[in-house]
Amino acid sequence: MRFAYLLVPLLLAACSSTPPPAPVPPPPALVPEADTPVEAPVEAILPAPPPRATPPDPEAAALLSRARALAQDALIVDGHIDVPYRLHQSGDDVGDATEAGDFDYPRAIAGGLNAPFLSVYVPAHYQETGGAKAFADSLIDLVEGLTEAHPDKFRIARSPAEVRANTAAGLISLPLGMENGAPIEGDLANLEHFHSRGIRYITLTHGRDNEISDSSYDDAGTHGGLSDF
After folding, report:
1. Closest C-alpha among 167, 170, 116, 121 to residue 142
2. Which of 28, 52, 59, 87 has an alpha carbon 20 to 30 Å from 217's alpha carbon atom?
3. Rounded to the nearest 5°, which phi and psi values hold at 43?
């Protein structure tokens, strides 16, 4: 028993003089180096399966067929197509199929378009440099040249009656509108001039205030709306 009593204090002394073992750190996370490629999942490596062919929808096909028939039967007018300025910029012949733009004769026929208003667009800078009227006249000349180059496809229309007559003759009517009233140049006599050339509507202004009215794009507020003119 005396031996046991002596052994216990020795063991206790030994335990108290020995520091506890340091905790073992967790293994580092396996983060790839910046230039180490990461294995992509199989889904990202294999090519995507081809899309399944959608079976034709008889109801949708019938509706499309009806819409095309209505487009060919009705008289369709488009109120604004930017062709004259496009002719000025690119020289495209819209009497034939074109890659650029949104209008040409084949697409108009396919869509049943009968009377697109060609917009005689006059940029606002002509209000400062002068020459707005002359530029508008040059664009109308281009439209007239288009009808002369394709008399079997286009004809200028100045009234609803002419639109109906052109449609009956198998021609696309080209009524004219003016985008920006700057070509009036402060002279009401120019209204008569442009009416005689086929213009049937005029938007008062465009990107900047002019002699007729303020523009919603311009913060100047020159007239507070319409001008006295």
Report:
1. 121
2. 87
3. -60, -30
Cα 13 to Cα 6, 8, 17, 21, distances in angstroms: 11, 9, 6, 17
Distances (CA, A) of 226 to 186, 214, 219: 13, 6, 14
Closest CA to 150 of 111, 87, 84, 93: 93
d(CA 124, CA 24): 78
Tokens representing 202? Answer: 């005029």
Distance CA 196, CA 119 (A): 16
169-217 pLDDT, tens digit each? 999 999 999 999 999 999 999 999 999 999 999 999 999 999 999 999 9
pLDDT band at 20 (very low <50, low <70, confident <90, very high): low
DSSP string, 151-196: TTTEEE--SHHHHHHHHHTT-EEE-EEEE-SGGGTT-THHHHHHHH
C-beta pairs of 204-209 under 8 Å, 24+ apart in sequence: 205/124, 205/180, 205/181, 206/121, 206/122, 206/123, 206/124, 206/179, 206/180, 206/182, 207/123, 207/124, 208/124, 208/127
- Tokens linked to 27: 């293994």
Query: Beta-carbon neighbour count of residue 127 at 10 Å?
Result: 22
Tokens of 137: 């006249």
Six token digits for residue 96? 């034939």
pLDDT in tens, 117-160: 999 999 999 998 999 999 999 999 999 999 999 999 999 999 99
